[in-house]
Amino acid sequence: MSVTAAKGFTAAGIVAGIKESGNPDLALVVNEGPRLAAAGVFTSNRVKAAPVRWSEQVLKGGQVSAVVLNSGGANACTGPLGFQDTHATAEKAAEVLGGNAGEIAVASTGLIGVRLPMDKLLPGIGKAAAELSAHGGEKAAIAIKTTDTVHKTAVAQGDGWTVGGMAKGAGMLAPGLATMLVVLTTDADVDAAGLDAALRSATRQTFDRVDSDGCMSTNDTVLLLASGASGTVPAADAFAEAVRTVCDDLARQLIGDAEGASKDIRIEVVGAATEDDAVEVGRSIARNNLLKCAIHGEDPNWGRVLSAIGTTSAAFDPDRLNVAINGVWVCKEGSVGEDRDLVDMRYREVRITADLSAGTESAVIWANDLTADYVHENSAYSS
Amino acid sequence: MSVTAAKGFTAAGIVAGIKESGNPDLALVVNEGPRLAAAGVFTSNRVKAAPVRWSEQVLKGGQVSAVVLNSGGANACTGPLGFQDTHATAEKAAEVLGGNAGEIAVASTGLIGVRLPMDKLLPGIGKAAAELSAHGGEKAAIAIKTTDTVHKTAVAQGDGWTVGGMAKGAGMLAPGLATMLVVLTTDADVDAAGLDAALRSATRQTFDRVDSDGCMSTNDTVLLLASGASGTVPAADAFAEAVRTVCDDLARQLIGDAEGASKDIRIEVVGAATEDDAVEVGRSIARNNLLKCAIHGEDPNWGRVLSAIGTTSAAFDPDRLNVAINGVWVCKEGSVGEDRDLVDMRYREVRITADLSAGTESAVIWANDLTADYVHENSAYSS
């Protein structure tokens, strides 16, 4: 499964020694062709890690022969020397694998503001190359984990072709993508423009609507590589749907494994005048710390939902807002609705529906609760 | 001190029985004249509590003879009946005190979405009126507390006149004012327009730059009442400065008593192209949950500061950003700076300086850390 579910790809995940823990920390994904088409979506954070700046340049060419991914260090805020480290990584991979460094994408994840141990990373690329395999997808997915408790893979089958992928991410999940690295592969025969269209459409409705903790990373990278090895040119709609399915699956896995979370919150905004309004309201609810605490406490505190809606510029009349929590309309027309004691919040998934009574558009945003475990994980992370 | 520091005001704080705890929950502040000039600033949340909607109307007249404040219930999201409750509160106060209900402001704080127990609140107004005193300011400040651990008062002396005030607030502190009720009084002889100018200028630089948890309340109310009892017309500048001093003092007290906080974080953004840029960057830093956790863990994690800056639209070059934590420039030119081990974070106050290297403007935003205690307080609040 994972990035080797589609034909024409090999992958590996190994211990390069970047992490002090001795856990796997370097992954390689190689497109064996015949095609090398690729598209990418990156963080919208203006403070971008060196590998993001490098890979953005690589993707402009629309061709990627291999991706080098490391955990154990983000290589963000490391200045010109950090950028040189990324460049050296691509050069080393080109030397080992053959090919052109300008077609090798690099992705990093871990602590910001620390240089990578290049004396370990560079030899690791050779080691990984020696272990490349058409069954290496799982190992690659494992090697990109940071505080993830499980590795994340997904796959969708088309008519004679396949889309597969892997993701890491836990915390710093927010619009403009999460602290996440995602590599998707397909053996469908799709050119770079077709990959770009499918990927942008998919991420807009999946990864971009995941908001674990409101924080936007410096390193988010989502790549889609096509080998064309199936020899099949898919219908654009079917291909886009398969990419969206894999992205949606991975996005849900990210939320389900977010740092310290005890609840996954599905926020559906309906009755919006525009989709943008629905997304803005959904994100405002998703980022409200007081509400996130209330959900953690299994308290159907709809007043905090209304407070969050009230901070947006979306079209609505406060006296026509309705809110349901797990199917119980606890707020009707901006005031007290059904009995809040009817809301059963024992399960991990909590569904909030906010009806703006202002139109017919809707959107779904996924978030997490705010917990003492989140505080603990993130107050001790770099020390 | 408090609202009775200035001449021409009486106040009271009593137990009306609104709170189940039996703690004081009703305050009355009466302007005994000769003037009844007033100004007010309210939450910018579009979901406004009934007392906010009422008091906004009252303030349009520029005259306030009395303010009724209750804790134990926000009277927000309570529909038309909730508005009738606020109206009845003002009518009752007018009946007891004499005067016009249209000149009586009302402020409420507590849980959203619950009707107030009017059978307790209305008799409480009579009880409070019987206890009005020129020394009642402290008791009034105590009666408006919710999860505040201490009551908050401040005073500034002018040349022959005084500005005093009280505040409550703990949590839900964010731009557009905090979950706070603030009543300021002065015996200076200033008309409503003069009060309005001084109050808006002061709140813009004080309460509006406090951001404890990113959440904006439905009930925020800041009132400034002038009795003219000193017989002195102050210089506009001196008066504005006194109002700003009292607001600043109260705002700092709010941050110092925010729910569950263990650190007060002073975020100073310098080198900004515009003051708006400085404020936008300051707020983005103030609201970054990952940074707030790091500060709680006494971890000078400047990478999270840069991540937060990167999400703004302010003018800056990522490679020219500098960040100091408690005076140590841990980030220079977007990369590693002085040794982070030099940063001493043992004390409650933590100072972050973010230099955008893009101009000469600056702003200070105050925030709190994110703690397990915050999660605990806000996950158990309404259950």
From TrEMBL, chains A, B:
Query: Pathway it acts in?
Result: Amino-acid biosynthesis; L-arginine biosynthesis; L-ornithine and N-acetyl-L-glutamate from L-glutamate and N(2)-acetyl-L-ornithine (cyclic): step 1/1; Amino-acid biosynthesis; L-arginine biosynthesis; N(2)-acetyl-L-ornithine from L-glutamate: step 1/4
Q: Where in the cell is it found?
A: Cytoplasm
Q: Where does substrate bind?
A: T146, K168, T179, E259, N378, S383
Record keywords, A-Z: Acyltransferase, Amino-acid biosynthesis, Arginine biosynthesis, Autocatalytic cleavage, Cytoplasm, Multifunctional enzyme, Transferase
Chief place of localization: cytoplasm
The domain of life is: Bacteria
By its UniProt entry, which InterPro entries does this protein fall under? Arg_biosynth_ArgJ, ArgJ-like_dom_sf, ArgJ_beta_C
Checking Pfam families in the record gives: ArgJ
Catalytic residues as annotated in Swiss-Prot or TrEMBL: T179
BP GO annotations = L-arginine biosynthetic process; ornithine biosynthetic process
Q: Name one GO molecular function term.
A: L-glutamate N-acetyltransferase activity
What PANTHER family does the record tag this protein with? ARGININE BIOSYNTHESIS BIFUNCTIONAL PROTEIN ARGJ, ARGININE BIOSYNTHESIS BIFUNCTIONAL PROTEIN ARGJ, MITOCHONDRIAL
Which Gene3D superfamilies does the entry link to? ArgJ beta chain, C-terminal domain, L-amino peptidase D-ALA esterase/amidase
This protein's name: Arginine biosynthesis bifunctional protein ArgJ
Q: Which reaction does it catalyse?
A: L-glutamate + acetyl-CoA = N-acetyl-L-glutamate + CoA + H(+); N(2)-acetyl-L-ornithine + L-glutamate = N-acetyl-L-glutamate + L-ornithine
Q: What does this protein do?
A: Catalyzes two activities which are involved in the cyclic version of arginine biosynthesis: the synthesis of N-acetylglutamate from glutamate and acetyl-CoA as the acetyl donor, and of ornithine by transacetylation between N(2)-acetylornithine and glutamate.
The EC number on file is 2.3.1.35, 2.3.1.1
Listed GO CC annotations: cytoplasm
* NCBIfam families named in the record: ArgJ, PRK05388.1
Site feature: Cleavage: A178, T179
